[in-house]
Design brief:
With 367 residues, the protein is α+β, with helices and mostly antiparallel strands. Among the domains are: 153 residues, no CATH class; 78 residues, Leucine-rich Repeat Variant. 35% of the residues lie in helices and 11% in strands. The protein is built from 15 helices and 10 strands. Strand 8 and strand 9 form a beta hairpin. About 2% of the residues have low confidence. Belongs to the QueG family.
């Protein structure tokens, strides 16, 4: 990764030199590019580094070995990208306005619940393109400067940086919360060598509320601001590669890709803004699909239906694993049992094991 250039605010002839004016312009340009909020962060994360190291030491990251692979660079932006002086942080809301209601889908055990960030197109390229365009607008104003854009593409403590940029506070569920926007949003960063005025972190507003802690189906939020990823449904259905621990399977219910429970119950999400982004609208009916229908997708159908979707990174094997668990948690419908039996001889041991478990849960002995 190249270093940022050491020059700062190297304007074109006649360009404004005032960093405060440039910061205001950056916020305006970000809004014009479709970001829902823009802030500027001081990249000082010493306290967050301590939290990260303790979390890793306690093994709460599970199989996510990449969380510790880069040492302390994740909490030290100037080590990750030498020359970094400020981080421009952006927020993009993603909650689809016309998606089926979460509680209605979760209450129907024949349907699959998919975290709302994943029912539309993948966000990585969209945000990265817009960050690049923001950098180009800055360059058009001041001339060449050093920058690197990131959207989940490097070891970055994005929530901590966004907090420093004034975009919200880190809540008891460990997500970034915003008084006007809730938590249904994506984050992106532009590391820069610009000496811009930094925003101030907001005060926290969780108070005595513990709704997110109490609602977590698997008890993954072990206390305020403490998450054990090894119990988290989002981790188990997305990041985890092996068998899902049997004692946690019943609590997963019909959640087949991620979990929004700790967001849905958060009082601040009463103010979550629906997205105006067409790419984030539900595709292929994934906001309320039938479990049996999804389970019968062959690999070619899976690849075709998840093209451009965050779901594709699962692969067909883990997709079937997750769906088998959900089917096992549902009613013993003849269609569900028949669909499971069709996968009893699947080439993957991982799939077969979860199918056998599901059939046992439904009172149907393996064939």
């Amino acid at each position: 990764m190249p270093n940022l250039k050491p020059e700062t605010l190297n304007p074109k002839p006649g360009a404004a030199l005032d960093p405060a004016v440039l910061a205001a312009d950056i916020r305006r340009w970000g809004a014009e590019l479709g970001f829902d909020a823009v802030g500027i962060a001081e990249p000082e994360l010493a306290v967050d580094e301590g939290h990260l190291l303790r979390w890793l030491r306690d093994g709460r990251h599970g199989e996510m070995s990449w969380m510790g692979r880069h040492g302390v660079k994740r909490a030290r932006p100037a080590q990750l990208v030498p020359g970094t002086r400020r981080v421009i942080c952006v927020r993009k809301d993603y909650r689809p306005p016309d998606a089926a209601a979460d509680d209605a889908v979760l209450a129907d055990p024949r349907r699959a619940f998919i975290a709302r960030y994943a029912v539309g197109r993948d966000y990585h390229k969209l945000l990265r393109r817009r960050l690049q365009r923001l950098a180009e607008r800055i360059q058009a104003r001041i001339g060449p400067f050093g920058y690197r854009a990131f959207v989940d593409s490097a070891p970055v403590l994005e929530k901590a940086l966004a907090r420093n940029a004034g975009l919200g506070w880190i809540g008891k569920n460990t997500l970034l919360l915003n008084r006007e926007g809730g938590s249904y949003f994506f984050l992106g960063e532009l590391f820069t060598d610009l000496a811009l005025p930094a925003d101030a972190p907001p005060t926290e507003h969780c108070g005595s509320c513990r709704a997110c802690i109490d609602v977590c189906p698997t008890g993954a939020i072990t206390g305020p601001y403490q998450l054990d990823a090894r119990r988290c449904i989002s981790y188990l259905t997305i990041e985890h590669h092996g068998p899902i621990p049997e004692h946690l399977r019943p609590a997963i219910g019909n959640r087949v890709f991620g979990c929004d429970d700790c967001q849905a119950v958060c009082p601040w999400n009463r103010y979550a803004r629906p997205t105006d982004e067409a790419d984030f609208q539900p595709r292929h009916g994934l906001d309320s699909p039938q479990l049996v229908s999804l389970f019968r997708w062959d690999e070619a159908t899976f690849l075709e239906r998840t093209a451009g979707s965050p779901i594709r990174r699962l692969g067909h094997e883990r997709w079937l694993r997750n769906l088998a668990v959900a089917l096992g948690n549902g009613p013993a419908d003849p269609d569900a049992i028949a669909a499971l039996r069709e996968r009893e001889s699947h080439p993957s041991e991982l799939v077969r094991e979860h199918v056998v478990w599901a059939l046992g849960r439904l009172g149907a002995n393996p064939g």
